[in-house]
Amino acid sequence: MLREMEELRARLEEAEATIQAIQSGEVDALVVAGPEGERVFVLEGADYPYRAMLEVLNEGVVTLGADGGILSCNNRFVTFVKMPIEQVLGKPLAGFVTKGDAPKLSAFLSEAAEGGGVVTVNLALNDGTTMPANLSAAVFEAGGRPALCVVVTDLTEMFAATKARLWLASIVDSSNDAVISNSFDNKILTWNAAAERIYGFSAQEAVGQPTSIIVPRDRSQEFELIGENARLGQRIAAHETVQTTKLGAPIDVSLTISPLMDANENAIGMSVIARDITERKKVAAELERHRRHLEEMVQQRTDELWVTSNELRATNEALQGQRKEMAMAHEQLSEHSEVLRKNEERLRLALHAGKMATWDWQIPADEMNWNDEHYRMFGYEVGEVKPSFAAWASRLHADDREIAQAAFNVAMN
To answer: Three-state SS across 223-291?
Structure first.
């Protein structure tokens, strides 16, 4: 009997303590065990509008007791951790953080208890995945006792956007083409590594400067027109023009210009991709020079053949008996001339492409000619020494001179 009375007295004291806690606002919810399992009952009071506001936030909100256990949380936090609220309440916040970030969270909670703070951690979710989150905390009183309010912000999208920006920045920085962005008042906004190599200005020197540092005066109107087209949302591809380097040297570039759009699809600047085509232009000019030279040679040879043909025709008229032979000689001469022209062209292209040295020696007159590559191959400036057999032999390796001399003697005999 005494034991039953003691049990009833203890239960009565527990009930009175619970009622007092509810009346004082220390309790946000009750967990009641029944035949169907535990059920959570949320208590409404004067602070109900604030609770309702917390439920519509995109951030998770939890309140922690002095022991770090979760006293209450909103549905957003429950959604974050993917766990029923009855399993969340009472569990320490450290239980929702990855092991690697546990020391960081502990230090954060200690500092936050003194006056708030902010930290970035990875939440360990109930399904085994993780979520990057920003935690911000503030101290407040709940029922006369200190408590901690922690706001949890999901950083997944921000981290993904940052990763995408870093990935794009890596692509831009590793490009062999200069990638530059300009404002419509012709100020340089960004400048990649290839732009440094092509134009000679470092990013620190170029960013914030007017585009006139690379656009010559006589091309300023052309660049203004490009800007106007970009302002209208137009894209320009493979526009060839001339710009200047830091040293003032002109360079040929091919530009691709695209407008930069804001979130409302308004043009706010332009992106310029510049490819240095200076060498390509030089090669094209050199090929054009060779083409004209060959045409001149062909014309000259054609004229010579025309003269020869006329002479042969006159001789054929005078020597009726030799007409057939002369016609055949003329045809053979034409064929030989074409073969000679093709062979000369092949030889010229092969020497140019292979950077091969050649020389010829008129032995009776003892006159020798070297091509330009021959001078460079032997380490001379063109015209630095007078070509001669002795000068040629002096550049042979000592181990090869005897062999070369023997081969020369054989050729001479």
So the answer is: HHHHHHHHHCCCCEEEEEEEEECCCCCEEEEEEEEEEEECCCCCEEEEEEEEEECHHHHHHHHHHHHHH
